[in-house]
Amino acid sequence: MTKASVVRWEESRAATGARPGAEWSPAVLCPSGPVSYPDASGYYPRAGAATPLPSLAAPGTVQDPFPLYRTLRSAHPLHLDEPFGAWLLSRYADVRAALADPRLVAPPPGRTFAHLEADTHAAQRALLAPALQGRALATLKASVERTAYVLARRLAGRHEADLVEEFCHWLPAVAAVRALGLPYQGTAHVAALCREGLTHLGGAPAALDAFLRPQIARRRAHPTDDLLGALCAARDGGRPLSDDTVCGLAATLLGAGGDATDRALAALLANLLDHPEQLALVRARPELAGAAWAESLRRDPAAHVVLRRALVPVPVSGGTIPAGATVACLVGAAGRDASRFPDPDRYDLFREAPGQLAHGTGRHRCPGVQLARLTAEAGLRALLTALPSMTWAPGFRPAYEGLLTRSPTALHVRLR
Questions:
Q1: How confident is the model at residue 27 (pLDDT cuts 50, 70, 90)?
Q2: Helices (DSSP H) in 257-405: which residue ranges?
Q3: Are the CB atoms for 37 and 7 separated by under 8 Å?
Q4: pLDDT at residue 112 tops 50
Q5: In a domain, 64, yes or no
Q6: Which residues have CB under 8 Å from 319's CB, separation 6+?
């Protein structure tokens, strides 16, 4: 892709108010050759095409991707989106199958779970299991619940607050920091790194590497019983994991338990505040928190687009993905597929089998699922206990932002 093409993409993104370069690089994703660009309606011209073709790269998609998702599901189940630079899958069955297909792998660069080969992936996933079960899990749960109540009680005497800035940004970061045994003083730094784009599919950025490596060195010299200590002490084939591997695994948990949970928790709160009768049910019956979380992940996942690369040709409904192609699994579209979910745009915490794809599936299922659920449920219970009169601030409506990842930018609420 030429420099001029990149500039045109950034200009179209800037017109929507998005930060240049904030989400992905078209130089990595776009195929070689001439690239056409979509108009504001979400479609782009293509030589020989009878009608314009839909594109994720259209400026309006960042504000509202759902009309485009409906078009893709109904008319373009497999679609080469030239401006975005990927083949798009949008139907629930196709996205679910693609996320579990070993022929579709996470695109480089990266060194987290999503980038590991099957045997290595399974072995290293097993290293995390002891820290997320039994006594270790009970200790972590108690810590997260205490933190949630402290954060919620700090808001209790206020008239209004922004739950994104004052709750969602902090609780998941604290949970992930506590799970790894990192210094509590580093929570603000880790939270900032998460908000700058650390996810469960990306590698550890240089700033996180610089933060983690001294902690790893200390645990190599003086073993600890926290999760980072367990990773440092672990053996793979009789050899200790490299510092690069430990950093990558820690980044996976921080991304899944930090940024992704931050966004998903914000969406959960927005969905319940938009449906006060369901919010009242969860307040009266706290055991419904898990159902509320699962339904929110279906309707408004944090990761709307998950990228994969095809190792070989892969048949799907609508055609075959060619070998070497970048594939965009549209999780945000799959969760609202009417062929799978009746009345899919409706938020309903009593929905049967919400068909969870938000954390991946198969061998790529995110290892932070349990930590994310624990954090979200503890956060919701703490807010409902400390803030029993919580409602939207007068005149406020949440605005969602993002293309690959998407969540409310603010949650202004009245507390009493």
A1: very low
A2: 261-274, 276-284, 289-299, 331-334, 369-386
A3: no
A4: no
A5: no
A6: 78
What's the whole-number mean pLDDT along residues 9-27?
Answer: 37
Residue carrying structure tokens 């972590």: 140
Return the pLDDT at 336: 96
CB 336 within 8 A of CB 72: no
Residues facing residue 321 across a β-bridge: 314
Residue 384 token pair: 């409902």
Q: What are phi and psi of 316, to 5 degrees?
A: -140, 175
Q: How far apart are CA 108 and CA 9, in angstroms?
A: 22
Of all residues in the chain, what percent are helix, strand and coil, respectively (each to 5)?
50, 10, 40
Domain CATH code at residue 248: 1.10.630.10
pLDDT tens readout for residues 165-209? 999 988 988 887 887 888 877 777 777 776 665 554 445 567 888
Instruction: Measure Cα distances from 389 to 163, 164, 170, 273, 410 in Å.
Output: 14, 18, 22, 11, 19
Closest listed residue to residue 402, CA positions, set 13, 6, 1, 4: 13
Q: Find, among 47, 271, 67, the residue nearest to 55 by Cα.
A: 67
Q: Is 90 part of a structural domain of the chain? A: no
Name the residue range of residue 154's domain.
110-298+367-414
- What are the distances in angstroms from CA 88 to CA 27, 51, 189, 286? 18, 18, 35, 38
Structural domain count of the chain: 1
Q: Is residue 61 part of a domain?
A: no
